[in-house]
Backbone:
């Protein structure tokens, strides 16, 4: 068997090769969607519309960044939407109880990190499947949110707070959440693509056993990824609360689907081991453009929901086919057997 | 390879920033700057009420709490009737569930589409306020109805009924249905954040504090989210949890029907009564079988019709929403003028009581 | 290698199976024991718990979830998951209600249509997972969105009122035979038939084999993809049954009906001892899990805790059950490994 670093470099290059093409596909898709949008509605190219377009998806986009790392590492975190809801209800509860926001916000972020720690410990140390663990915390965090705030909403937030989610960088139409998203994308992009943490994350995703034998601290990194995811989900919940100027226990419901869709659409392999942050950033824009164009064209929410579900499935099906086609072409061309690690992990299990 | 992907991100970020920077005309507000292809809005949307143009056809966005609730379908018949009279266009949009955060994107889109007016029943009064204010700043008239947005986020709020009137009515009906005006009562409401239901419930509680009602004890308030299955489960829960329950008060057409069905099917109509706000067509059989001898409502289609008329008058400049202004709508209020009250509220009229003597006469 | 390998594979499968059967029985018994203890405690504070009307109410609602949970259990046994069951239920419920409202097909016809629709939706899931090789979590997350979207599209803003349904259609939700609610009988029937199939047919054995050890199953020549496809299809069919039951129970149906149920179904399965790693668990367990959760929900209400604790309890229950399952699986692996060494 090839050592992980050698295989990593070789298939890493070929994977980036495929992905480089995937990102181009995304750019083309975005261009196409923009054209479609302009055709569908005369309001599409108005500057105000671009703001709407971006603002509505920013919480999802922010959560998609740590989700990328988690999926690259071969796990998944379904509980992000509920942590966002818990953050929202906590902020509302604390604010209504008179706690100043300067104290409440860091507290909520800490809670987010703790929730992520719970996920991380159960998955990394307990070696439980992340799918079910985060399904459980999806319910647990939402339940905690409901216990904290009940059915009520808190909405008398000060304008300084709502400016975060609803306002713009002074003098422009760029929403603050977009700035947060870009900064986070840059940071995590550097981490994933340039640092040893990122390399080890890929290694864990490609072959956990080999990574462990190579000295990668699998447990530590996995736990850290979940902590990050929880923390960022809490941040997203705070931004959502600010944007809507309303704290609700059911905030963020349904976001997990969109987050996972965006990540997979960005070219990240659901089985782990490959994917890039720029790809996910492009996917965010593609989905935002698509949703906005559809809404302006008065396409109903139901059709949009169908489109999103289809997009999610296609984002896995298409790379599958592309990969099989590529292997077939390689085989025909070079008479070389396909590289051993090009067989998708987990194919045998689902059948 | 890595340089390429990093480079792509930077290029992307730069392009986006440049795109936004280029669009900074108009400063910090969200008003869509004078953009080119946009002037397809019929009737000229930006008139702030100065020109008293005749009421020509306009485009109105209708944004109910959710598009599944039959109450809003009934209101729409009135809105459509008003629109037909002037050839106006009604665009109905809205979420499938009565959640405020789901309503917000629709407000934004209606604003971008530059409709003349928005008629909205708010799922949450504060959540929708920022975007409604932005719409008003863009010259769109905002008419709240049924469930009010926050004060300042609408030009006029058409209240279907005087809040305190309904609060007293609900307490009175509960008193009437409980034996000797004594016993446990419970409330089955809609969504926990609904402005109107919460206002009615608050006033009902204030009324219940009075002497006449001291035998009544409000044991619980549960929320059915205006969903038939959730309301059914909540009603069942009430029956199970409070064996001495005498009256269920449901100030929501979805809730009262669910509660009446539950009580009737459980065979408990003799000991537990249901009252609140309901459609006569839904409740006729429950009046007859004794589950719901008394309940109330108002003409929901008329509510829609009035809302449309108010929107049209705001757009044409006939009214501006200031307290004290009056206007008349033919066919409503016996052709007497309506007066705009405090907080720019217009009231449709008093609630109407249905019971076995009159429920058959109505068909909605 | 093949002969001895197959023999080893069968040996470890069987001894593991024996272990798991014992554990499953323990799980079912513990659930029943906890329910009895809990029931006793609750009755002390709220005597109306022990009334016939309350218990049948609990049983009826639990039966509805149990039917869907049985289908879900089949899928989980093969090491997959189906998150789209609530959307299937909602779509079937609306279509059946709508057909009945229009007197289009007659009662039996409408029900048959509903079951057929459930089956088709399950088959769609099966195809996406087995033919297109999309992992079940992604596939069913996608179909959850798609099926619910179709439900909203078909329903629009329409709501089928109870009054439009044929007379007596909603009676099965409230009637009993010999004191047992009809819904419970339906659920029991499904559990009995399903368990018989799993225990005595080749398909049943293949189902467990595919879930517990896919590589060995492949070596043994089991058509895993067909097995998984069938599991998803039956899950869809049973979700369709649950959808029909839903109409009978609630009467008024619109596009939002049956939202929020997927966690209840998955929690029921997991609590009922169907191991999330696949390859073990019983349908009886899944049904008991549904009953157990219904019990807890009812106890919560009666004891005075608000309904808002329910979600948190579902979550805790899933986490506890998964942890317990993992511990069990590891103990068994250690035990069978030791046995093989000997």
Residues:
């Amino acid at each position: 068997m090839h050592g992980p670093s050698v295989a990593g470099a070789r298939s890493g290059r070929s994977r980036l090769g495929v992905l480089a093409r995937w990102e181009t596909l995304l750019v083309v898709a975005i261009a196409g969607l923009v054209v479609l949008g302009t055709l569908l509605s005369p309001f599409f190219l108005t500057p105000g519309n671009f703001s709407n377009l971006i603002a509505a998806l920013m919480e999802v986009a922010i959560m998609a960044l740590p989700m990328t790392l988690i999926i690259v590492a071969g796990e998944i975190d379904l509980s992000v939407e509920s942590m966002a809801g818990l953050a929202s209800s906590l902020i509302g509860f604390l604010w209504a109880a008179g706690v100043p926001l300067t104290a409440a916000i860091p507290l909520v972020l800490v809670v987010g990190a703790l929730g992520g720690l719970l996920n991380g410990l159960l998955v990394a140390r307990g070696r439980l499947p992340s799918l079910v663990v985060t399904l459980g915390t999806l319910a647990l965090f939402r339940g905690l949110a409901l216990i904290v705030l009940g059915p009520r909403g808190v909405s008398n937030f000060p304008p300084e707070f709502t400016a975060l989610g609803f306002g713009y960088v002074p003098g422009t139409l760029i929403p603050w959440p977009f700035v947060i998203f870009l900064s986070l994308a840059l940071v995590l992009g550097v981490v994933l693509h340039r640092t040893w943490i990122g390399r080890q994350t890929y290694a864990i995703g490609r072959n956990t056993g080999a990574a462990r034998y190579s000295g990668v601290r699998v447990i530590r990194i996995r736990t850290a990824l979940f902590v990050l995811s929880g923390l960022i989900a809490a941040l997203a919940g705070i931004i959502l609360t600010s944007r809507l100027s309303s704290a609700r226990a059911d905030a963020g419901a349904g976001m997990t689907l969109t987050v996972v869709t965006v990540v997979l659409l960005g070219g990240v392999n659901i089985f782990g081991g490959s994917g890039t942050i720029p790809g996910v950033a492009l996917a965010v824009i593609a989905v935002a453009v698509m949703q906005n164009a559809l809404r302006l064209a008065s396409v109903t929410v139901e059709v949009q929901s169908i489109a999103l579900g289809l997009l999610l499935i296609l984002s896995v099906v298409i790379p599958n086919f592309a990969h099989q086609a590529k292997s077939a072409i390689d085989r025909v061309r070079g008479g070389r057997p396909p590289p051993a690690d090009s067989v998708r992990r987990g194919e045998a299990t689902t059948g | 390879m890595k340089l390429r992907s990093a480079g792509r991100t930077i290029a992307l970020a730069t392009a986006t920033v440049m795109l936004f920077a280029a669009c900074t005309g108009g400063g910090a507000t969200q008003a869509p700057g004078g953009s080119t292809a946009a002037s397809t809005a019929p009737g000229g949307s930006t008139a702030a009420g100065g020109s008293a143009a005749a009421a020509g056809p306009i485009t109105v966005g209708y944004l109910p709490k959710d598009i599944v609730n039959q109450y809003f379908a009934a209101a729409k018949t009135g809105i459509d009737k008003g629109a037909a009279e002037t050839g106006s266009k009604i665009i109905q949009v809205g979420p499938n569930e009565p959640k405020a955060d789901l309503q917000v994107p629709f407000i934004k889109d209606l604003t971008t589409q530059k409709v003349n007016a928005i008629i909205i029943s708010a799922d949450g009064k504060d959540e929708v306020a920022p975007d409604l204010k932005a719409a008003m700043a863009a010259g769109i008239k905002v008419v709240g109805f049924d469930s009010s947005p926050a004060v300042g986020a609408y030009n006029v709020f058409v209240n279907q009924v005087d809040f305190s009137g309904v609060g007293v009515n609900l307490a009175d009906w509960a008193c009437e249905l409980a034996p000797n005006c004594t016993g446990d009562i419970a409330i089955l409401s809609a969504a926990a954040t609904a402005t109107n239901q919460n206002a009615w419930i608050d006033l009902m509680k204030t009324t219940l504090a009075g002497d006449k009602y001291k035998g009544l004890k409000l044991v619980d308030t549960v929320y059915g989210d205006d969903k038939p299955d959730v309301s059914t489960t909540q009603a069942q829960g009430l029956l199970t949890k409070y064996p001495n329950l005498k009256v269920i008060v449901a100030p929501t057409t979805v809730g009262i029907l669910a509660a009446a069905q539950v009580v009737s099917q459980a065979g408990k109509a003799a000991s537990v009564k249901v009252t609140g706000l309901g459609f006569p067509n839904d409740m006729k059989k429950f009046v007859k079988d004794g589950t719901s001898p008394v309940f109330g409502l108002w003409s929901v289609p008329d509510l829609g019709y009035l809302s449309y008329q108010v929107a049209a008058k705001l757009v044409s400049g006939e009214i501006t929403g200031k307290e004290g202004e009056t206007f008349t709508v033919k066919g409503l209020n016996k052709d007497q003028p309506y007066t705009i009250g405090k907080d720019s509220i217009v009231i449709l009229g008093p609630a109407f009581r249905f019971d076995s003597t009159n429920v058959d006469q109505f068909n909605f | 290698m093949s002969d001895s390998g197959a023999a080893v594979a069968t040996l470890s499968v069987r001894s593991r199976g024996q272990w798991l059967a014992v554990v499953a029985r323990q799980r079912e018994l513990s659930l029943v024991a906890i329910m009895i203890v809990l029931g006793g405690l609750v009755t002390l504070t709220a005597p109306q718990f022990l009334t016939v009307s309350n218990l049948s109410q609990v049983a009826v609602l639990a039966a509805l979830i149990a039917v869907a949970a049985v289908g879900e259990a089949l899928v989980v046994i093969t090491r997959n998951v189906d998150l789209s069951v609530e959307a299937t239920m909602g779509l079937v419920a609306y279509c059946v209600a709508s057909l009945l409202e229009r007197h289009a097909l007659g009662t039996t016809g409408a029900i048959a249509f509903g079951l057929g629709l459930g089956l088709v939706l399950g088959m769609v899931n099966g195809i996406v997972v087995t033919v297109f090789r999309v992992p079940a979590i992604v596939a069913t997350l996608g179909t959850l969105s798609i099926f619910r979207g179709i439900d909203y599209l078909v329903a629009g803003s329409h709501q089928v009122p109870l009054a439009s349904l044929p007379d007596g259609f909603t009676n099965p939700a409230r009637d009993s035979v010999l004191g047992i609610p009809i819904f419970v009988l339906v659920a029991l029937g499904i559990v009995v038939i399903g368990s018989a199939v799993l225990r005595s047919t080749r398909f049943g054995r293949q189902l467990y084999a595919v879930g517990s050890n896919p590589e060995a199953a492949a070596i043994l020549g089991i058509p895993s993809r067909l097995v998984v496809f069938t599991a998803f299809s039956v899950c869809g069919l049973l979700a369709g049954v649950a959808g029909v039951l839903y109409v009978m129970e609630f009467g008024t149906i619109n596009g939002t009906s049956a939202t929020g149920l997927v966690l209840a179904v998955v929690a029921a399965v997991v609590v009922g001892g169907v191991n999330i790693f696949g390859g073990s668990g019983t349908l009886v367990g899944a049904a008991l899990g549904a009953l157990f959760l219904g019990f807890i929900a009812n106890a919560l209400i009666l004891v005075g805790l608000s309904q808002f604790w329910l979600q948190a309890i579902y979550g805790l229950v899933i986490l506890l059950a998964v942890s317990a399952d993992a511990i069990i699986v590891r103990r068994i692996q250690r035990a069978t490994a030791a046995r093989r060494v000997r």
